[in-house]
Design goal:
heterodimer, A: alpha/beta, 8 helices, 12 strands, about 30% helix, about 20% strand, globular, B: mainly alpha, MetI-like fold, two-stranded antiparallel ribbon, 10 helices
């Protein structure tokens, strides 16, 4: 079994020249079973992206172990592919070349014909084969992120790592991409496991089998783990009427609200679906809070249902 | 003065002086600042206005010249220079042995030297810059040497070139090589060092090898910086070649200027200045075009 096993993970930043260290990850234990879709949710600065970076092999933990299928993770490998928040396509390569070069670089042992076939299949699956010769800046943000998704799948990873993949997209584009992602994950690919960092409560519930709620210092890193027992395929319009959906949503809101009282700022705007309209807006972020992520947009909990009318 | 810099979406093209860790210092780049943009107005009207203003600038220059020439009888008047220029350009490519060649031959000789030295500098400087930008250790090893040698006037290398190469035209090419090396190296290094973290992470996650990283990430990102470095190098090289040839003598536009002065023909000197300026301007336009081609931008004042 290729489970992702995280044990006793610690990571802190800073801690030099009188600046107290920031304990971003504090004793994280988490097992993502093969075939699971797990979402990491939490406020800015809670370390969820750091955790993903460590699993990707881009960052190193101070203590603890991470292993995939029993093998310890120390650096990036073709068994893990990542979709970054800001698309991160190479700007001077065509969409096709972006996917192809990544697949070739990650899988030097595989025959090129096989890789090229995968590249074409995934670019077609995300509806971009016709646009394959365009440069990233010539297509929309949604198309860029679809290319990034195709790139990750084309490598044929065992686990897919998504770092707020749809955060910068508009609601309609996000909804379409979520569906494409589920389709690729469910049918097209051999990739079985997904670990996704998100800011969106509804995105987490719609996509994930399990939601890991992460909290800010000084509390524990993993506040709670919630199972989403909703049958698949989940229809975004009808799923919200199911009691299980409401239950998870309320549980998440309670946990995240409770946590917003501590070190991290509350979300800049909180709109949680039609039923909750009229709830007073949270106060704006405190100055200096969440400063490690100053370039990122403030977390927005937006329901797709409300955006879709 | 180095007044231009590039700013490409893929990254920032930097001046030789603005390279990370580099001390500021004017190298004398080839600068042709585009005019400030104006809001509103038709394109035709804007072009006519630009042409009119450039005529005003030219008229002021000629006015100052006439004023100076009125005081100094040895200084030729604009009309004298125009007629000399006409003579020189009337038969530019004659060659009646050493010391008696047409102005076109002299310019081509100088251009050939500049392009040889410049080309060698690019062949050495671009790979060296990429190495410096990609490796902290290479940067630490090479940067002090570059910073030490960069402020030295390239002409100081001429005696060394003469002794080692035993040939003054070759020594001139060597001087141009040294001239063109520093801006190329530093700009390339700055471009290569400024690859955004996003792109580095992509290369890491998908395990790009060294060759793939250089080819698909580093070089594409650095292109505007590289071309900016080449443009600065060419600008300085074209200035330095005149000085070198005044030292080395015999052939080239620099020696033409020196020989004209010794022959007491200031009209020829000024004609040569006009032609040197024209060629330099054309060279800069070419590199500006190249810069735009690779997605870079020259800064507007």
């Amino acid at each position: 079994m290729s489970d992702l096993v995280i044990k006793g993970l610690h990571k802190s930043f800073g801690g030099r020249r009188g600046v107290p260290p920031q304990h971003v990850l504090r004793d994280v234990d988490l097992t993502v079973r093969q075939g699971e879709f797990v979402s990491l949710i939490g406020h800015s600065g809670c370390g969820k992206s750091t955790l993903l970076g460590i699993v990707a092999g881009l960052q190193h933990a101070d203590a603890g172990e991470v292993s995939l299928g029993g093998e310890p993770i120390t650096r990036p490998g073709p068994d893990r592919a990542m979709v970054f928040q800001n698309y991160s396509l190479l700007p001077r390569l065509s969409l096709l070349a972006n996917v192809r070069e990544a697949a070739r670089a990650a899988r030097p042992d595989r025959p090129r014909a096989l890789l090229d076939e995968a590249v074409e299949r995934y670019l077609t699956a995300v509806g971009l084969w016709e646009q394959r010769n365009k440069l990233p800046h010539q297509v929309s943000g949604g198309m860029q992120q679809r290319t990034a998704v195709a790139r990750a799948f084309a490598v044929g990873p065992r686990i897919l790592l998504l770092d707020e993949p749809f955060g910068a997209l508009d609601a309609l584009t996000r909804a379409r991409l979520q569906e494409q992602l589920l389709e690729l994950w469910g049918t097209e690919s051999t990739t079985e496991t997904v670990l996704m960092v998100t800011h969106g409560i509804d995105e987490a519930i719609l996509l994930a089998d399990r939601i890991v709620v992460m909290g800010n210092p000084p509390g524990p890193s993993v506040v709670d783990t919630i199972d989403v027992v909703l049958p698949r395929p989940r229809d975004r319009v009808t799923v919200i009427d199911q009691p299980a959906y409401r239950g998870v949503q309320e549980r998440l809101l309670t946990l995240l609200h409770a946590d917003s009282g501590s070190a991290a700022p509350p979300p800049a705007a909180l709109s949680v679906g039609p039923a909750d309209r009229g709830r007073p807006r949270a106060s704006p972020p405190a100055p200096g809070a969440g400063r490690r992520h100053v370039t990122r947009p403030a977390p927005l909990f937006v329901t797709l249902t409300s955006s879709l009318g | 003065m180095t007044t231009q810099s590039g700013n490409a979406p893929a990254g920032t093209a930097v001046l030789a002086d603005a390279a990370p860790g580099a001390q500021a210092g004017a190298d004398g780049g080839a600068a042709t600042p585009p005019p400030p943009r104006r809001a509103g107005g038709g394109r035709l009207r804007a072009a006519a206005s630009a042409a009119a203003w450039s005529l005003v600038g030219l008229a002021v220059l000629v006015g100052l010249w006439l004023w100076a020439a009125a005081d100094t009888p040895e200084l030729p008047k604009p009309t004298d220079v125009l007629s000399t220029l006409g003579d020189l350009l009337g038969d530019p490519f004659y060659d009646r042995g050493p010391g008696d060649k047409g102005i076109g031959v002299q310019l081509l000789t100088s251009l050939q030297r500049v392009f040889t030295g410049f080309g060698l500098a690019a062949l050495v400087g671009i790979p060296l810059g990429l190495l410096m930008g990609g490796s902290k250790r290479a940067w630490q090893a090479v940067n002090p040497v570059v910073q030490l040698l960069r402020p030295v006037s390239p002409l100081a290398w001429f005696p060394l070139g003469l002794v080692v190469l035993k040939d003054s035209p070759q020594a001139a090419v060597f001087v141009i090589f040294v001239t063109a090396l520093w801006p190329t190296v530093l700009n390339t290094a700055a471009g290569a060092a400024s690859v955004p973290d996003d792109q580095r992470n992509v290369a890491k996650v998908f395990r790009f090898g060294r060759f793939a990283y250089v080819r698909h990430v580093m070089v594409p990102h650095s292109l505007p910086s590289i071309v900016t470095g080449l443009r600065l190098s060419m600008g300085i090289a074209w200035m330095v070649i005149v000085a070198v040839e005044m030292l080395s003598g015999s052939t080239g536009i620099g020696s033409f200027v020196w020989n004209s002065y010794n022959g007491g023909d200031l009209s020829e000197v000024i004609s040569a200045i006009v032609l040197i300026g024209g060629v330099g301007f054309a060279l800069d336009m070419f590199f500006l075009w190249l810069l735009r081609l690779v997605g870079g931008k020259a800064a507007t004042p």
